[in-house]
Amino acid sequence: MISTNLLIFRFPIHGFVTKYNQSLTLHTMLNQAHESRSKSLANTDYNVNNETMQKSKFGRICVFCGSSQGKKSSYQDAAVDLGNELVSRNIDLVYGGGSIGLMGLVSQAVHDGGRHVIGVIPKTLMPRELTGETVGEVRAVADMHQRKAEMARHSDAFIALPGGYGTLEELLEVITWAQLGIHDKPVGLLNVDGYYNSLLSFIDKAVEEGFISPNARQIIISAPTAKELVKKLEEYSPCHESVASKLCWEIERIGYSSED
């Protein structure tokens, strides 16, 4: 059976010439002119809104964040703001799958905005981090290693909100993967109220002491607001020298799997 799709296009009418009957009253002519002008303005607004709509090169962004909300309300506000920023740019969310803490806030904001949410969570953590109603798609995995691999595989970029050991581990691993050449995706820190200042100082110290190359320092992007950070991620271009190419890592992975 052949189906037919009907496409409807809206476009502004910039002008037309019509012969008016002499019997047409001035009042009627004015009404028609007003209606034509109103339609033209409405179509102009429609086009302007489409032109100014924010577009992103990212389909999905992975967000690392705490299963706690933190003591400051600014952390919670930042999680919601980030979720709203992703929605405004038509970006879907990949995250750790929890419904509590900052994880719950950012995922709820993205879900409420109509974007798709993918939560990746180890089965062992589900009773602890999943409470009440879950949002989006929940993918259960065997362990923490598989969780990080799945989150990275489905994402085009990474953002870390404030968090604890788990957030730092996830963040530093994707930074290391970028340095090694496993991926070339941008990594961002949402540095709310200077939360990550100490970490950035540590990294700068490591550069100063020769443990991190100056070019590799550029892997990490930071900004105090979600809007500014996503903009920087959009503009990111890798400038560090990878330890090995992405292709080499892929070949190595395939070879390792075939030996199992």
UniProtKB/TrEMBL annotation:
Keyword NAD: no
Record has S-adenosyl-L-methionine as a keyword: no
Enzyme type, top EC level: hydrolase
SUPFAM superfamilies (UniProt xref): MCP/YpsA-like (SSF102405)
Listed InterPro entries: LOG, LOG_fam
Protein family (similarity comment): Belongs to the LOG family.
Name of this protein: Cytokinin riboside 5'-monophosphate phosphoribohydrolase
